[in-house]
């Protein structure tokens, strides 16, 4: 088999296309493959598919293709143009690449697979791509996937936020809690951020939303109330966000108490910040000893931090109740305990929950939590970590849609 025929087969080129020349550049570890076509070929207009004779050729272009062993392989061709009576002079579709792509479809598919498994830096090394090329592939994949998406409204939404790099710069995320996908992203965490999602839905679609899990964050509450009929029955202030507030309260108690103890030369709480963040059942091995010491002996020594932590732990029982009725009783018991503890940060959170209690207890109607979007949140944390934070907000959005959007990212192989 001659190399032109070999590459025709490898590229899957069919009439009227064929491989006209193959050049092996040993020193550069590069294979160049030229594609050409029969003069007599007729071409469909890309707009209306009318078959037309060749008009002329555009300038020669190059597409990166799958490597041939260790040799980078590039396909070259001059794209034919036709003159359609309706659409004027147009470049025809090429069977090996999407319009305007710099890569063949097969290469782009491989790149998407690699980018899914590793970060951009790793992908640039494996695929021998530049940073910009890798991001271009990601962006195109996301645009493709989002354009293909059929309009649908998740019955159970999760609204969340994530910080962009460092500082107080946020993105608002709307998640489909059933599918575990990010449906929508918007800048900041204002009412307008979430309004943008609802603006894309009809009233009928918004009526189909059955429940919305979110934090006790007024701008989001306002937005849901303005757009979702019967919002007061559908909003669920979810357990994850509430426990996040409690964790922050425990930490504030710890910081304060640590300062006081330290002033007396007592280092009991030194380096204990993360120990207190765990629930009893998920303490990692390396923290276990410290955890037991602090929570058990800490309680004996009447450490305020240990009391705050115990309150946080017992608050979780609220969501283990079998009915809303039982939960109401549990809440009364817990609130009285929290009030007696006289720990200001804990009491602040307790009061906040009390103010919002009806929409905490909607949990017992809908049984939703942001647990699903919690999974997304940890994926997003991993993305941030891999990227060392995102200095570029658009790249961050692209990465979230790419990895968490549940999108069909591949280029279409049929054209
Ligand atoms: Zn046409």
In short:
The chain is an alpha+beta fold and 415 residues long.
Explain what the structure shows:
The protein has a five-stranded mixed beta sheet, sandwiched between helices. It has helices at residues 3-11, 105-117, 120-127, 131-148, 191-199, 203-208, 218-227, 231-234, 239-263, 285-300, 304-315, 324-341, 344-355, 357-361, 363-366, 371-386, 393-404, and strands at residues 17-25, 30-37, 42-44, 51-53, 56-57, 61-68, 71-77, 80-84, 88-91, 156-163, 170-176, 181-187, 211-214, 235-237. Helix 4 packs across helix 17 and helix 12 (324-341) runs antiparallel to helix 13 (344-355). The chain contains 17 helices and 14 strands. Strand 8 and strand 9 form a beta hairpin. Bound molecules: zinc ion. Residues 45, 47-48, 50, 84, 86-87 line the site of zinc ion. Zinc ion binds next to loops.
Strand content: 15-25%
CA distance, first residue to last residue? 27 Å
Helix content: 40-55%
- Structural category: alpha+beta
Indicate the low-confidence ranges by residue numbers: none
List cofactors, ions and other ligands.
zinc ion
Oligomer class: single chain
Radius of gyration: 29 Å
Question: How would you sum up the major sheet?
Answer: 5 strands, mixed
Average pLDDT over all residues: 92
Which terms would index this structure?
415 residues, binds zinc ion, alpha+beta, elongated, 5-stranded mixed beta sheet, 4-stranded mixed beta sheet
Give the helix/strand layout.
Layout (H helix, E strand, L loop, with lengths): L2 H9 L5 E9 L4 E8 L4 E3 L6 E3 L2 E2 L3 E8 L2 E7 L2 E5 L3 E4 L13 H13 L2 H8 L3 H18 L7 E8 L6 E7 L4 E7 L3 H9 L3 H6 L2 E4 L3 H10 L3 H4 E3 L1 H25 L21 H16 L3 H12 L8 H18 L2 H12 L1 H5 L1 H4 L4 H16 L6 H12 L11
Parallel strand pairs: 2-7, 10-13, 13-14
Antiparallel strand pairs: 1-2, 3-4, 5-8, 6-7, 8-9, 10-11, 11-12
Helix pairs in contact: 2-4, 3-4, 4-17, 5-7, 9-11, 9-13, 10-11, 11-12, 12-13, 16-17
Bound molecules: zinc ion.
């Amino acid at each position: 088999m001659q190399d032109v025929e070999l590459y025709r087969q490898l590229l899957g080129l069919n009439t009227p296309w064929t491989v006209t020349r193959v050049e092996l550049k040993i020193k550069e570890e590069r294979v160049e493959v030229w594609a050409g076509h029969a003069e007599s070929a007729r071409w469909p207009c890309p707009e209306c598919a009318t078959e037309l004779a060749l008009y002329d050729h555009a300038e020669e272009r190059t597409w990166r293709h799958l490597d041939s062993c260790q040799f980078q392989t590039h396909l070259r061709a001059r794209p034919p143009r036709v003159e359609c009576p309706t659409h004027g002079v147009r470049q025809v579709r090429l069977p090996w690449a999407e319009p305007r792509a710099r890569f063949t479809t097969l290469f782009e598919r491989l790149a998407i697979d690699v980018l899914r498994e590793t970060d951009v830096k790793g992908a640039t090394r494996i695929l021998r791509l530049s940073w910009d090329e890798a991001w271009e592939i990601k962006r195109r994949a996301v645009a493709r996937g989002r354009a293909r998406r059929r309009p649908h409204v998740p019955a159970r939404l999760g609204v969340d936020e994530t910080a962009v790099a460092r500082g107080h710069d946020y993105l608002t995320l709307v998640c489909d809690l059933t599918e575990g996908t990010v449906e929508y992203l918007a800048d900041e965490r204002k009412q307008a951020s979430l309004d943008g999602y609802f603006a894309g839905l009809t009233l009928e679609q918004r009526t189909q939303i059955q429940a919305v899990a979110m934090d006790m964050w007024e701008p989001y509450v306002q937005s849901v109330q303005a757009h979702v009929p019967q919002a007061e029955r559908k909003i669920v202030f979810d357990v994850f966000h509430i426990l996040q507030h409690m964790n922050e309260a425990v930490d504030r108690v710890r910081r304060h108490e640590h300062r006081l103890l330290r002033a007396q030369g007592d280092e009991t709480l030194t380096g204990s910040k993360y120990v207190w963040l765990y629930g009893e059942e998920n303490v990692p091995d390396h923290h276990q000893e410290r955890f037991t010491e602090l929570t058990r002996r800490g309680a004996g020594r009447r450490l305020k931090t240990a009391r705050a932590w115990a309150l946080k732990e017992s608050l979780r029982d609220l969501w283990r109740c079998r009915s809303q009725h039982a939960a109401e009783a549990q809440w009364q018991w817990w609130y009285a305990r929290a009030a007696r503890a006289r720990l200001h940060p804990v009491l602040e959170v307790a009061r906040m929950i009390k103010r919002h209690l009806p929409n905490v207890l909607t949990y017992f109607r809908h049984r939703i939590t942001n647990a699903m979007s919690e999974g997304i949140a940890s994926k997003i944390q991993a993305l941030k970590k891999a990227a060392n934070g995102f200095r570029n907000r658009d790249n961050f959005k692209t990465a979230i849609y790419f990895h968490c959007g549940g999108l069909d990212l591949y280029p279409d192989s049929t054209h």
